[in-house]
Specification:
242 residues; four-stranded antiparallel sheet; 7 helices; Rossmann fold; six-stranded mixed sheet; globular; alpha/beta
Length: 242
């Protein structure tokens, strides 16, 4: 779906509410993600980031509102090969090689041997393809997990805190990989509680207590709030909301 300026929105969230018992977890969220963009979902732990991601994947019950991805409701069978996800904790098999992990997940989506090789190459792990996950660094293991998600050629990639806990150089390398995906037309939603990650994103979704405080570029947020860095901008938005 395109807006009046011709921008193609791949993912649309409309008035999304999620409750658990008497607790309101997500409170009327609205956002649009355009094709080939990187959107940072940034906020403190417990603010609802993972719940939103689960809803986008179609594995979280929605109380009201809607999520459309590529013109289909979240969780639709036709989206299974078009939307990929990596969890905050490593969710691949640690005792087998990078290649065998990617090949296994590739079989689940009908990927070919060429697809497996391409996925490993896209995350720059050709030299480590035969190495068990336990023999990789943290950043390399994260890239192996990404390869498993990419093997089906998804159009939307949802990543839950993929860079948290990594050293600065490894984080920078991963963001370069993410930027390469976006250049190929993949739409990325990347969560983090590290506010500085905003500088790598086309837009940020600042989130607090189940609500969005902003959806715009970090440069726009800082200019609007008169602040010098993402953390100050986030704190300024909190003050405005109160």
């Amino acid at each position: 779906m395109r807006n009046s300026t011709g921008v193609e929105f791949v993912l649309r969230v409309r008035n999304l509410h999620i409750r658990r018992g008497t607790t309101s977890v997500l409170r009327g969220l609205n956002c649009n993600l355009s094709r080939g963009s990187i959107t940072g979902l940034l906020g403190p732990s417990g603010c609802g980031k993972t719940t939103l991601m689960r809803a986008i994947l179609g594995v979280q019950q929605i109380t009201s509102g809607s999520i459309d991805i590529l013109g289909l409701p979240a969780g639709a069978k036709a989206l299974r090969h078009k939307v990929a996800y990596t969890s905050q904790s490593l969710s691949i098999y640690p005792d087998i090689s990078v290649h065998d992990n990617v090949a296994y997940f590739g079989r689940l989506v009908g990927a070919s041997g060429t697809d497996v090789a391409q996925a490993i190459s896209r995350v720059q792990l050709n030299d480590y393809a035969s190495r068990p996950i336990t023999k990789l660094s943290g950043g390399q293991a994260n890239r192996a997990s990404l390869a498993c998600a990419l093997v089906g050629h998804p159009e939307v990639l949802v990543l839950d805190e993929p860079t948290v806990g990594l050293d600065p150089i490894t984080r920078q390398e991963l963001w370069q990989v993410f930027r390469g995906f976006a250049a190929e037309g993949v739409t990325l939603l990347i969560s983090s509680h590290v506010m500085d990650e905003a500088s790598h994103c086309d837009e940020v979704l600042f989130m607090r207590e189940g609500e969005f405080l902003a959806q715009e570029s970090i440069e726009s947020v800082q200019a609007r709030t008169g602040t010098d860095n993402p953390e100050e901008a986030f704190l300024a938005l909190i003050k405005e909301s109160e």
